[in-house]
Design a protein that fits this description.
mainly beta, single chain, elongated, 1 helix, Complement Module, domain 1
């Protein structure tokens, strides 16, 4: 997988909901090129309708 010019060894995706009801997707991009180990975090806001936020398939914890 590549991101820009960096070759990534791993990407982790985290989707979270804030207490205000906003949803955000966080991409944790690990750059593991030779001799370089770094982490880049990309945050993407997700627009959702109130009905989608109350989806019974994804109950509140």
């Amino acid at each position: 997988m590549t991101w820009g010019n960096a070759k990534l060894g791993r990407m982790t995706t985290v989707i979270m909901r804030t207490c205000e009801g906003d949803m955000r997707m966080m991409l944790l991009l690990w750059d593991v090129t030779s001799g370089n180990r770094s982490l880049e975090i990309v945050e993407i806001p997700i627009k959702a309708t109130p009905r989608a936020l109350n989806n019974p398939d994804f109950p509140e914890k």
